[in-house]
Amino acid sequence: MSFYRSSEGGYSPVWGPPSSTLNFCEEDYEFTPYIAELINTLTNLIYIGLGIKGLTNSRKLGGNGLGSKLPYLALINLGIASSLFHSSLKYSTQMCDEFSMLIATFIVFYRLLSFSQTIIAPSVLLGSLCALMLVVVVAQTITGESTVQQIVFTGMVYWLWHMCFKLIGNFDSEEAVKRKMRWMAISGIAFFVTGHACWATDFYACDGLRELRRNIGMPWAAVLELHGFWHIFTGIGVYIFMILVECLRSAQGRNKMGSAGLRLSSAGTWPFMVYLENTATRTNTKKDI
Fold first, then answer.
1. What is the dihedral of CA 22, 26, 30, 32, to 10 degrees?
2. Which of 68, 96, 186, 251 gives the lowest tally of CB atoms within 10 Å of its CB?
3. Contact 276, 250 (CB under 8 A)
4. pTM given for the model
């Protein structure tokens, strides 16, 4: 299925004509010859901002290992790759964007399954995820379409939610903490579903949205650039799952967490209601926001 919405555009693009197989509802080069989709490019700042915040909080909590930082680094990488794609609409940057989505999801998926089950060894799990990535790359190269990538990405996000919810149910902790972790998981998937609805509406109702935006005019027309809201909502949703996985991993090794001067707290506000607290400094340092 083709996910390409042609656009007359305004300025002549500095980067040359688009070569991507994806083009969304925002008019191309409407404001500047340097950025194809201005709103879709700027909204990627949500990924970069949340990734930087995650890295900062990880450092404050004494997270010296690379493993706890990888999800946030992947989120920053996704924001950069997606910005490059939406600003140029080149096939090479499209590939960077799409596989950055998979890499970020694979990292969180690996960090969740590597401690939550004993059937598959971590090395086998890592090899399987790399093999799946290769299958997606080959499929996209042969077909020239992103259908397989979208199916794998969406399926893994929903599977992450299912696994998180299952682990929370078996989690040995105070009921108040478990209840708020459940609400975090529900909030995370709700953000993702809302973002997916924005993505679908932006594509299937594009003609009506473009006409409405022309009638309204800027700046309010920017509110109807729904693909930008896909970035915002999915960025928050994926970030919530990153927090949940790190909390669940830390709680699994409770003795190690205690010796590191950390504990789980449920005093946070929605949607980041559970976080890791630094008890050694008593500074209420949060890993969640």
1. -60
2. 186
3. yes
4. 0.85
